[in-house]
Amino acid sequence: PQGSEEAKAFINAFLKRSMPKKKDEAIQDILTRKAVVLERYSRKKTKQKRKKTKGFTAKQRREMRLFEIEPEQQRYAIFLPLHELWKQYIRDLCYGLKPDAQPHMIQGKLLKADLHGAIVTVTKSKCPSYVGITGIILQEFKHVFKIITKEDKLKVVPKLNNVFSLEIDGFISYIYGSKFQLRASERSAKKFKLKGTIDL
What range does the record give for the signal peptide (predicted)? Predict the structure, then answer.
């Protein structure tokens, strides 16, 4: 019958596609057994090597002066809007800084918070010339804060042997710089332990 011929032609074509490495005689031999085991031939995929994007080295960043603030930009008034944004960020982070909020909770949040835009004051220091410096944090590095004062002076204050106070909505927090020598990105993932006594 015509239907069986069409079926046979379809099966022959299907087997040739499925088993491209076998000859016609071998395919016919398989058909006479009435048992077909299809073989799978996987095509080898050529893996494309991913090119790693290389960033600048620390030396290149210094040579390009990427982190330096131009003298004409070193003005306290320019960064006041940044401080207002920071205050809103902290309020959202600490769920509104309500009067009944637990100090330990707020302290824990502030330890991991981004401090760019915060107004800080050096309250204690082993170097007396640092005591009393107040300003907005413009840049935070592993070992230093860069602070712009109301007198439009950019101060580089080391974290080591300094205690900083931070005030927002009546809540005052103290940062012990010696225990705070981390980059902002590393600090957000660190677990801080409460210690009874901390000295400079």
Answer: none
Both tokens assigned to 109:
């949040």
Among 4-8, 90-94, 121-125, the minimum mean pLDDT is found in 4-8
Q: Residues 9-37: pLDDT tens digits?
A: 887 787 777 777 777 777 777 667 655 55
Go through 39-57 and write b for each residue having 16 or more CB atoms within 10 A of its CB, e for each that does not. eeeeeeeeeeeeeeeeeee
CA distance 173 to 198: 14
Residue 187: HSE in the Cβ half-sphere, 13 Å Cα cutoff: 20
Tell me the Cα Rg of the chain: 34
Domain positions in the chain: 70-189
CA atoms within 13 A on the CB side of 164: 27
Reported as half-sphere exposure (CB side, CA atoms, 13 A), residue 135 has a value of 25
SS3 call for 118 = coil
Structure tokens belonging to residue 113 = 């918070």
**Is the predicted pLDDT of residue 124 greater than 90, yes or no?**
yes
Tell me which CATH code domain 70-189 carries: 2.30.30.210
Structure tokens at 88: 């809103």
Interatomic CA distance for residues 107 and 100, integer angstroms: 14
What is the reported pLDDT for 163?
Answer: 93
